[in-house]
């Protein structure tokens, strides 16, 4: 099976689409920001590191087997600027499980743009890919993400104490999730 959404995935203000090589400068703007990468699993990146990461992202526009991530650029339609990324992992075919992730340039925080992109990706996961459950993993202390996940209708299902060695320290992992039926009922 190959799952490839029809691109771009349009929301009210955003186009979610596969990455392009010309996204490099926009990606550098937030991949190099310590505030953005504080809670994501990559370090502050320089231009060459972003270029290398972008080469991988260029191949992540479809899902062919469980374990893969669909990684899309969040483009602000008004300016055609890539302001972030939204991700959906196809975690399990048998259990129809997925995982949501996102990162957004700090200059665009507080406008509901991350929620808009994440909501669209949940729709893709449930309505297009046919997932039963989508979860998100959040480092304890990332209150902006926990508030966003709650707004999306997700609930915290777990709090794993010092379960991750993350950026040089032991951190608690908060597990959030929503099931397809809960998504449909919203």
Describe the structure.
The chain has 186 residues and is α+β, with helices and mostly antiparallel strands. 29% of the residues lie in helices and 35% in strands. The chain has six helices and eight strands. It has helices at residues 24-31, 34-37, 47-57, 113-128, 143-151, 180-185; strands at 9-10, 14-18, 69-76, 81-92, 97-104, 133-139, 155-166, 169-179. The chain has an eight-stranded mixed beta sheet, sandwiched between helices. Strand 1 (9-10) and strand 2 (14-18) form a beta hairpin. Helix 1 crosses helix 3 (47-57). The protein is globular and about 40 Å long. The protein starts with 8 loop residues before the first strand and ends with a helix. The model has no long low-confidence stretch (mean pLDDT 97).
Number of strands: 8
Terminal-residue CA separation: 29 Å
Q: Roughly what fraction of the amino acids lie in strands?
A: 25-35%
Rg over CA atoms, rounded to whole Å, is 16 Å
Number of helices in the DSSP assignment: 6
* SS content category: alpha+beta
Listing every helix as H and every strand as E from the N terminus to the C terminus, the arrangement reads EEHHHEEEHEHEEH
> What is the share of helical residues?
25-40%
| Main sheet summary | 8 strands, mixed
- Which descriptor suits the 3D outline? globular
What is the multimeric organization of the chains shown?
single chain
The pLDDT mean sits at: 97
Strand order of the largest sheet: 1-2-3-4-5-6-8-7
What low-confidence regions span 5 or more consecutive residues with pLDDT below 50? none
């Amino acid at each position: 099976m190959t799952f490839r959404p029809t691109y771009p995935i349009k929301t009210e203000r955003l186009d979610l689409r596969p990455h392009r090589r010309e996204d490099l400068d926009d990606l550098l703007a937030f991949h190099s920001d310590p505030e953005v990468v504080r809670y994501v699993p990559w370090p502050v990146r320089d231009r060459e590191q972003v270029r290398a990461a972008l080469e991988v992202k260029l191949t992540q526009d479809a899902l062919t087997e469980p374990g893969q991530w669909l990684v899309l650029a969040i483009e602000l339609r008004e300016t055609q600027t890539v302001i972030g990324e939204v991700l959906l992992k196809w975690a399990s075919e048998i259990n129809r499980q997925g995982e949501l992730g996102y990162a957004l340039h700090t200059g665009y925080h507080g406008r509901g743009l991350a929620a808009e992109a994440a909501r669209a990706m949940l729709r893709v996961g449930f309505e297009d890919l046919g997932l039963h459950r989508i979860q998100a993993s959040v480092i304890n202390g990332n209150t902006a993400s926990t508030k966003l996940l709650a707004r999306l209708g997700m609930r915290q299902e777990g709090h794993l104490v010092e379960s991750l060695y993350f950026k040089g320290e032991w951190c608690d992992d908060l597990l959030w999730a929503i099931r397809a039926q809960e998504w449909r009922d919203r």
